User: Fold this.
Amino acid sequence: MLSRTTACRGVQRAARTSAIRPVQRRGLAAPASGSFQYQSGDAKGVKFASRDFAGPTTTLALVSKSGTRYQALPGLAEALQNFAFRSTDRRSTLRIVREAELLGAELNSYHTRENLVLEAKFLRDDLPYFVELFGELAASTKYQPHVYTEEVLPLIHFAHQRFLANPTEMAVQSAHALAFHRGLGTPTASASTTPYTKYLDPEAIEWYSKIAYAKSNIAVVANGAEHSELSKWVNEFFDGVPSAPIEQVKTGTEQTTYFGGEERISHDRANAFVLAFPGSSSFTGKFYKPEIAVLGSLLGGQSSIKWSPGFSLLGNAKASPNTKVSTTSAIYSDAGLLYTTITGEASNVAKTAKSTVEVIQKIASGKITKDDITKAKAAAKFKELEFGQDVKAGLLLTGDGLVNNNQAYQIDEVAQKIDGVTEEQVKAAAKSLLENKATVSAVGDLFRLPYASELGLNV
Amino acid sequence: MSAPSLAPFILKRPWLQKWVTPLAKWYANAAGYRQLGLKADDLIPEENDTVLLALKRLPPNEAYDRVFRLRRAFQCSMSHSLLPKTEWTKPEEDTPYLSEVITEIETEMKEREDLESMVLQKRAKNAGH
Assistant:
């Protein structure tokens, strides 16, 4: 038996400390929480934003509006991503790596459909070093032919192989291509459908870097840095960056339109089925529809609670526990895609796809309890806030918002918008999904996987 | 591999340069490789990692030209003949196309060695961590 004093000691201590020190941290969803908001600014044409998240480390990102959507030739975004942190005029690749290691930092670069991101995580004191490094990378990376053949090209080939072995990724890429054709539809991975190294050479990559890293196309975002500090160093170190793109490239800049359609790719490893519908743009864009996020979490599929299928409609409707279903609301600057990915054994995937369409029809016709919508709203809000709290996503969205729409991504406001969604809006959104053309892409055992017309969707 | 060279020492002293340049020109012509259509950099021994890597890094057209020059020189050498005078390498064509790449690789390797043997001193600010 625990003695009473032992059991209560922790509680007593907790009570004592909280009595001495009033609670300093505010709830994250509190509207005025200062640390949750990004402060933005402009330093000689370079946009930057920061939030002073308490803690000993900083995450710094250079977000450039040069993802696959904006690339003038296939593969440029990926090549540029792999050329990040390579030799510059002042220091070699090896020196960059060793210096970063000595400071205990992490360097990373990746690209999405719309953005190319260079990211560094480090101790707070080292901010000047990394701002300088980023300025240098953007202004004076050397695009040497031998670095391309010896280091960059093998990485691109590896990415291609990884892509080919991943049916889910193939299905998602194919759905995007069907939904948006060019621009947003350009695959982010070195897909088999594009001649992925045909148009690449060091000169072309260097030319693209002069567009991607122009002052008007980049934003520097920091998490865990003082705004005044960041402002000072960005002012100092980004002088060498070209102030305007070397050439105005129109690729991807036109308003995205939704097309829809069906694609079937055979694959012998696994099955993936993607059902996609037009979605909502990002909060900073013009076509923001909070009800799509709620609809996404209402359809759901993945449980957030252990040992339970969860409340989400698809989580309960899926054909077997081994079938994986997830619904994502992919948001881009001027369009979005709400898609459900189903993976698993072929016949189960087919059954689940059928019930997915039935579930959407059910929501559209209003046969849904208020309870479920309340749960979905709570889940969507939580997911949004958690996503925003996640440093990586926050940096990306903020940078993207700054470059595209001159506005930082403020998570608090997004959460408020989700709170305001009504039941009617969700039903109307579901109805509009069925009225529009759908996007269906099946990868895997095509004998078992259904056609869109068999599911009752028009493509 | 770049051999030790007096050139930087001489180039720094204009009076010495004036003296040595004619001598150097005479020597390069007398060495005989120009009469076989070669460049001085074609004579660098390639049986080591540095030069092999440098050869790999040559742009494709230069690598092709190099092979062409070498084969032509072998032919000449076997037939105990020289090229016609018009095809001799002109002094202005005799450029250090390979030694530049070699020095670049050598600086890379030296930097690596330097970084490997570096002695660290912690900043006073971070010493506690």
Summary: DSSP finds five helices and no strands in chain B. Chain B touches chain A at residues 56-57, 59, 108, 111-112, 115, 120, 125-126, 129 (CB under 8 Å).
